[in-house]
Fold:
Amino acid sequence: MKYASVIVDVPTMQTDRTFDYKIPEKWQGMILQGMRVIVPFGQRKLQGFVIEVKEESSFKKLKSIEGLQDLTPSVTPELLQLGSWLTETTLCFNISALQAMLPAAMKAKYDKMITLISEEKRKELEPTLKKYFEKQAEIPWSTFEDDDLLKQIQKEIQKGSLEVVYRVSQKTKQKKKRVVQLAQIQTDRNSPLDLLPSQAKKQKEMAQFAVEHIGSKEMPASDFLSLTNGSESSLKGLIQKGIITEKWVEIYRDPYEGRHFKKSLPLPLTTEQQQSISPILESVENKLHKVFLMYGVTGSGKTEVYLQSIEAVLNKGKEAIVLVPEISLTPQMVNRFKSRFGSMVAVLHSGLSIGEKYDEWRKIQRKEVKLVVGARSAIFAPFENLGMIIIDEEHETSYKQEETPRYHARDVAIKRGDYHNCPVVLGSATPTLESFARAQKGVYTLLTLKERVNNRAMPAVEIIDMREELRNGNRSMFSETLLEALQSRIEKKEQTVLFLNKRGYSSFVMCRDCGYVIQCPHCDISLTYHRFGQQLKCHYCGHEEIMPKVCPECQSEHIRYFGTGTQKVEEELAKVLPEASVIRMDVDTTSKKGSHERLLTKFGEGGADILLGTQMIAKGLDFPKVTLVGVLSADTMLHLPDFRAAEKTFQLLTQVSGRAGRHELPGEVIIQSYTPEHYSIELTKEHHYDEFFRQELAVRKLHEYPPYYYICLLTISHPDVLKVAIVTENISTFLKSNLSQQSIILGPVTSPIPKIKDRYRYQCMIKYKKEKNLHGTLKNILEHYQKDVHQNSLQITIDMNPYVML
Ligand code: ADP
Ligand code: ZN
Ligand code: ZN
Structure:
């Protein structure tokens, strides 16, 4: 193959296509589809992806590829196709789609190394390469300028002896560990000490230590030196004399290192589980792509069904992807997969460092694992023999990426499932309206689990009218019922989860005298109070300032923070229940790595009476001693400018309620609300998803929202408010004249947050059923404004399936 079509690393409209390059003769046969290469582009040298290699090109004067970034493809042929599909459906640049599929380490700064896969492989290397790797296991790529050498290295990679590794600069050190061990001494010598001259006292001492304490085992070199108080040069001496050998052992940066997972065995399934799993297994057996919606109440044993379905897939020698929301990617959840499948599992979540994520990704690429459990982007795991994709809590909005490419993991899953002829399982106790409607229409296969395992009762839910409390003179944030319930748990030594719906709440700062609210100078949003450091922060742009002592407007000293942040609840709790021990979990207490897990472990071990937190405690937690769940204010989310507000409220309340009474002790849920009669709150009482679905569907129909209409949101922003207004107006007009009569175009209007980072924001919404011209029309708009985008910092974002309306 003499030519390569390459997509270069420049996300602009003009470069959003392939460019042809000549493959220099020396690299013909070596450069493969999906590899990254270095190409000349204008004055620059850029990285690019080889989309195709071919015998001919219709272009005449072509430049040549100048460098190799990979020796094995980074992107599989399937993922290349998927990239084009993402580009088409989400209206992003092809390069953005490709990069979204790769771990950040491959984008970040890196040192490229050629590495010996294991010590035994050293012997198997070709002689020319062997001499390079005699003393080291890792050599910078740049050492092998010579193309013949590179060609040999490529062969070794195919044999599995060498690999290319990117060392993320600051992480390099953790990756490899130098260990020492006692060299095998020839039998005619009694002791290695004989080899040492008598004046080498320190070396003798160290050798003695090695004989007694290390032997044929391995010990980290650093430990050896510190335990013997030895120096690097003494160690060198011992190595030269053949008494001690050293080597570098590869250690994956394994975030779960040192943890032991007790092996768990498949449980005998309940009748409902059995009925759910058999159609899935059938689809695995017959290699049929089907989408299943597993609608099962919390605690109905969905996870056990996932585990056993996966087992069937692995038994067939295939691979599986399990997506769970970031927030519920808790150690508890990960443990369930690790204990069933052990080292066959890779885990991908945002808590991992760039290097750790890259290591997990490499395990997938090298087929060392068969199963990946991860958040949204794990959907791009480069498996080539997928047998199943599972999306747990399919209603979670975090499956939608809110930056380019604005994809929904569910759509990607279904696309990949189709390619691999394998089932996709969507699981939830509160499916999205869209998915449930599809299941009712027969597009998805509905699997229902109505009962909790062992017929444990669903927790009793009580809804408290907070207006009533106020009328009775209770001005605290705890109703009498909740307070009594809290007290009784403390007496009985049972535990409580207290949930604060923080979204839309935030503790803003207001002057009690003049009503002035402190806002971010760059965004139209009030600043949030953080007690730590007495700071005010903007959650959109990160602006920070110190909490003022007097009101900037009227100089009054009565300036206070309002709203019910978790810190404030904690303070209140300390007043009304001084004997209660509380663990608070929010962004502030969990920002340090590992703190999330530490707090949960502490609570699980009975380290506190109350776990107080935000969204991050709503999911996936399972503690036997939790018998009470309290929701401080159910309706804060209801009033957001979002057509899914009711759905999100219902889902969240149901999820939170599900944390109670999952084991022997029965559970109780107390929900406080100012609008208890709203169906999204009232219906949680009876765990009445079906009825909620019916009512919400009627509302969606009335207001022409999904699942009756698709929606597309355009957001236009610019530092000049007039410019934004005019452009948005023009875009709306253009849409109206180019789309069919059926489609509804709303706007231009200012966005719910009219200014972010000093940019004014307008939006315009399209509701449509079938709109053949939509993509074409939107592309026309983007092309038309291309220049403004480039020179004028106009920004147009198009979201084909928005979940955040702000
Ligand atoms: P879900 O994922 O639907 O919320 P889980 O899978 O977490 O439910 O199951 C709830 C509890 O029931 C877990 O503790 C689980 O170990 C247990 N469980 C699940 N299936 C069975 C079964 N077939 N027999 C006994 N216990 C089960
Ligand atoms: Zn701001
Ligand atoms: Zn004031």
